[in-house]
Amino acid sequence: MSDRIVFTRGVPPPEAFPTDELGECFDAAIRNDTNVVLQYGQQPGYAPLREELAKEYGVSETEILVGNGSLQLQDLVSAHLVGPGMAVYTEQPSYDRAITTFRRRGARVTGIPLEDDGISVERLEAAVEREVPAFVYLVPDFQNPAGATLSLEKRQRIVELANRYGFRVIEDIPYRKLRYRGEDLPLLRDIDPSPVITMSSFSKLLSPGIRVGFMIAPADLVSAVTRLGEDTYLSPVLPTQAAVAEYLRRDWLTPNIERLKDLYRPRWETMTEAVRRELPDAHAFIPDGGFFVSIMLPEDANTENLIGRAKDVDLVLTPGAAFFADPDDGESVPGDRFVRLPFCAVTPEQIDEGVRRLTSVL
Asked: What residues in the chain have per-residue pLDDT under 50?
């Protein structure tokens, strides 16, 4: 039996965690601010962390809500903005848990095709003309699951559409700081913050287990979602938020991000080369950063029971169909041909071998 290779979740490997530094920060946070950190309260999140984030993004602290991971914040925002049967538009494919979350809140989630430079704005505009959504959900940088990055022109056009038709845009940016080549593009909120809800987390930069995510939005929306949060979980998890605030206060995040890039860049390069070499007939999304390369297999590829046959060669894949919302044109979606290939938690040797195994079952 060969060693099992796991191409499923986008998780950091254990060697990515700044364990000693985080330990110091937890200790300092709990000892230095005991009365606040170990008590109920601070519903919009730990005040010093909101202060740090407000400084970074150039906003007021009233525009920031810190919660238990960004997915929880997506759920609370959905609970506030989505009524039963309302439309929500996502990229196609999109983050599977976001699709599930929006549907659970009663949304009809429609996927707008993803192109190499991000969502098809023409198809999005056509959908908006048919029905204005509660919001559009985008992962504009190194998209999960495909890896695509939204071009500057499309960012500008989407903000203009949001203002013209009066809908909100959620930009989810957990991978944005993990860029391995090229230059940063402006956030959608940098173009115009009024229709934009920006969400991110420290899961990919420090640790998923600490569950610290945040959103930046107009103060009235932050206030409404904060009340929902208080009714849901009473109080945020202040010790982890305080540890992150301490980490930022010590200016440790930027060096840690550089260390992560040094760890992940060779894995990204290996996955890129392996996909191009072993799967030349597939349409590959090669990102400039983040956690994922992805491929759309050709129509004649043997995708029948692909997940099961991959298991037979000790390769674990995520079913592609989970990343697809309802199609905007009523056509069937090619979920069986879509394969997400996370590279951060596997070694270059495992990447090469895993892509070879994938090729062997197609």
From this structure: 1
Structure-token pair, residue 136: 């559009």
Question: What is the set of domains in the chain, with CATH numbers?
Answer: 5-16+255-361 (3.90.1150.10), 21-249 (3.40.640.10)
pLDDT of 253:
98
How do residues 348-360 score in pLDDT, each as one tens digit?
Answer: 999 999 999 999 9
